[in-house]
Task: structure prediction
Amino acid sequence: MKLGVNLSFAIKRWIDGPQLASIVKEKLGIQYVQYTWDLSDPWWPEQRRDRIAKSYARAFKDAGLSIESTFGGLASYTYNNFLGPTEDIRHLGYEHFRRAIDMTGEMGIAAAGMPLGSFSYDDAKNPARREEIYKIALGMITELTRHARTRGLSTLLIEPVPLATEMPSSAVESLRVMKDLDGQTDIPVRLLVDWGHAMYKPLFKEDANMEVWMKHCGNYIHSFHIQQTDGGLDCHWSFTREGLVKPKGLYEFWKKYSLTSQTYFLEIIYPFEAEDDYVLSDMIKSTEVIKMAA
Result:
C-alpha cells in the first residue's frame, strides 16, 4: 500500500522547508508528498512565489522525498472558479489554475490539480445553465492541458466533491467528465478521489462507498485522499478517531483492486485553533494507525 501525505496539516505551522521535510521523513516516516497551494499561493507575484515554492521542492528532494503532485487547498476551494456564473469569475478560475501550473513547473513536479469549482445558487438549480457552464469549463481545462505540457507537467487532476452544487460530485458525473475530455487534451486529465467525499451519505445515499467509484471510474483514478469521516460532513479527521473509513479496509481495498501506482494521500485538516504540538502528535499517531493496518 503506497502511503503519502498532503501537507495541509502543516499550513500556518511548519512553513520552513527543511523542517517540514524532516517532519514528513523522520516523524511520519512517509516517502510520498502532495504539496498544497496553501503553502505558496499561485496568485502571489511570480518571483517571490516561485522562490518560496522551489525552496520547498529543493528541501524535500534533498531529504530524499518525492513530491508527486501539487493541489489546491482551503484558499483555492473558497472560490467558484471554473463553474462561476460570470465570465470574469470563470476566467479568474482559469488564471488561478494556470498560475498554479506555472508554479508546479518551476518546482519540477509532474502533476497539479484542484476541484472545478461551484455553481451559484441559481445556476445550480438550472439544468440548462449547468450544462452551458460545464461545457465552458471543459474547454478551459482542455486549453490548460496545452499550457501544462509546455511547463513540463504530465498530468492534470480533478477532484470530485460531495456537493450537488458542484461538478463533478458523483461517480457517474466524474466518468462523464473523463470521457468528455478523452482524446481532447494534450496531457491526460485524471481523477483524485477523496474517501471522505465518496462516503458522504446525505448526497450519495446507498451509493456512498468507494466500490461505486471503482465500478464507474476505476480506470481514471490517479490517486486518493484518505481521511476519517462520519459520513455526515466532510470531516477530514485523522485516523486516531473512529469513523466510517477503516484502516484495514483501505489495505483490503488496495489488494482487491491490485493497485500499484496510485497513492493514498493522508489529507488531514485541523482547526487553526488546534495546538501545534497536538497536531504533530496526532499526525504521527494517525500515520502509525494506517501503517499498522497494512
Residues 94 and 141 are 8 Å apart (CA to CA).
